[in-house]
Amino acid sequence: MKILGIRDIIGPIMIGPSSSHTAGALRIALMCRRLLAGEPRKATFTLYGSFAHTYRGHGTDKALVAGLLGMPTDDTRIRESFDIARAAGLDFEFVPAPDTPCEHPNTVDIDVTDETGAVTSMRGESIGGGAAVISRINGVDVRLTGEYHSIVVKQRDVRGVLAHIATCLNIFDINIATTRLFRERKGDVAYTIMQTDDEIDEAIARAIAKNPNIYEVRIVKSDRATDAVPPEAADETRRPDGFGADLTPEKAAEMFERLDFATGAELLAYCEENGLGINEAICRRERCMLAADRIAVDDTRRYLAEALDVMRESATLPLTDPARSMGGLIGGEAAKLSEKEAAGPCGELLARATTYAMAVLETNASMGRIVAAPTAGSSGVVPAMLLACQDVHGFSDDEIIDALSNAAAIGYLITRNATVSGAEGGCQAEVGAASAMAASAACQLFGGTPRQCFAAASNAIAGLLGLVCDPIAGLVEAPCQKRNATGVANALVSAQIALAGIGNLVDFDQTVEAMHHVGRSLPFELRESALGGLAATPAACAFCQGCAR
């Protein structure tokens, strides 16, 4: 299982409109590019499941091409990737295969011919929140996540090859994290994938390739956005408790085993035993995780400050400069709400939060820069709550960043024990999870205890349990924009209830489990396929005109 960090929940910082369908798709293609022998010249993308139904509306097509061109997830050129690809001499086509069975609903096969004439075929799955897995290379089942630096070796399956690879890495003082051999038949073609704690130099690949039983060696750099800064510039990363200031990788790995909270109950117990807030506990875990990966400087707060800046821009830009969405369903709603904040029934805080939530989705739907929190489709909920509370109640940026860490902890537990993918669990997994994150963070901002924060998160999940994912025409626009506003309202109500000391019969962990079971019970048509719910109404189908019902 992928080890989740704060950046996996509050992030990626990306171009919209969908973390799983845009950022995740891009990362699949980017890993594919890193497996090529030269620049790509021709590519065929075969799309399955939810990808096949919604790839145009979610920008999956543009993202796949952008990834093959080497663009990062937050590159504003993603919107123009088709034109850039053609100018670079890359021919591409998309082949939807919606009726072909596949294990994961967000699956794509990529067949690429590069400038050397070599052909590479691979399968990738976008598993939610922008994360991706390569599950097949040239017909051999593998598992490559991009979580670590990796070396991928195509070889003849004979004795001595694995030892040769390990010896080369040892000579270059590279620490091996995991080693796996993938093959279809003994003695045939096989792939060795070694994940390492250290970045791998091309000289290592050349040394490994000298073995006559090795056909190809490719380096895949880690997708983990450490954004590491030099120690002398990292004063702001040190917290007053001094925890983990001098952790060695070995000590950090040992401590991480105790801090890798598997459940809300474990995290709550640690908080109460040590007199810590949820944000402090999750940041201790993060520090150990990074140190165990030999990342010397923990710059989590700097990253969260950057994320907050992107959130603020995505929530405020549409108020003065509205942009029409890709699909044309939304655009300008936030500016209208901003003008009417004082006139409606909501009160200042809820009115402002509603405006911000709608604004972020406008930015997202126009392929602007947003922060997935935990996904792009639900990216308006957490920033709307944080920024509205800051505007109305004057919280400092430091307090908001602490609350953002708290939100990350809740999102981490939901992701670990359920899902935040709409294609797997419906909109309850996206807006519902974001609402739980925002509810817990709001509870902390207003002085709530960790136990009350978990109660608030439970309230929020329960309030949106069973919410379906039914994007009209496959676009992350309607009803997504208004559901983000509903999510932030639900979060504030949930926090208010918890702060009043009203408890729950069903605790946080059981509520997450119930959400997971409900999500798996939803039919495919109600899980981001654009084939059910509001997407299947006559008005929606008339708009779509190409509806695949």
Helix share of residues?
40-55%
**Class inferred from helices and paired strands:** alpha+beta
Poorly predicted spans: 225-240
Total number of distinct structural domains: 4
Mean pLDDT: 91
Rg (CA only): 23 Å
CATH architecture verdict of the largest domain? Orthogonal Bundle
Strand residue percentage: 15-25%
Named CATH topology of the largest domain:
2-methylcitrate dehydratase PrpD
| Biggest sheet overview | 6 strands, mixed
By DSSP (H or I, 4+ residues per run), the number of helices equals 21
The side-by-side strand order for the widest beta sheet comes to: 3-2-4-5-6-7
GO molecular function: 4 iron, 4 sulfur cluster binding; L-serine ammonia-lyase activity; metal ion binding
Organism: Slackia faecicanis
Pfam families: SDH_alpha, SDH_beta
Cofactor: [4Fe-4S] cluster
Structural overview:
Its cofactor is [4Fe-4S] cluster. Belongs to the iron-sulfur dependent L-serine dehydratase family. Residues 150-222 form the ACT domain. The chain is 46% helix and 15% strand. It is an alpha+beta fold. It folds into 4 domains: 1-141, 2-Layer Sandwich (60s Ribosomal Protein L30, Chain: A); 148-222, ACT domain (Alpha-Beta Plaits), CATH 3.30.70.260; 245-298, no CATH class; 301-544, Orthogonal Bundle (2-methylcitrate dehydratase PrpD). A 6-stranded mixed sheet has the order 3-2-4-5-6-7. The chain has a 4-stranded antiparallel sheet with strand order 9-10-8-11, with helices on one face. A hairpin with a 2-residue loop joins strand 5 (119-128) and strand 6 (131-137). Helix 2 packs parallel to helix 4 (60-68), helix 17 packs antiparallel against helix 18 (450-463) and helix 18 (450-463) packs parallel to helix 20 (508-521). It starts with 5 loop residues before the first helix and ends in a 5-residue tail after the last helix.
